[in-house]
Amino acid sequence: MAMVKNKTIKEAKEDLDKLTADPKMRGIIKLRDKWERDYYNGIACAKDEGINDAREEIALNSFKMGNTIEQTSMLTGLSKEKLQKIKHKMKC
Question: Is pTM, for the whole model, over 0.85?
């Protein structure tokens, strides 16, 4: 086995085995993993929201310029249903 042959990997595996043998440490590791997943998912969502906000702003400007829903859909990539909602909000 490659792990047994490489001294550094073997030592790291032994350290990992010691850490994960302790229930308290396993709990800490799980919490750290959860935090990391939540953090990076939050960043991904924020980026998506920013992109969608920008597309909606472009859609509003497109409608103000007199473009149709079809033209605005081609410009922004947003669905016609979404654009109808945006256009309706403009009238309110």
Answer: no
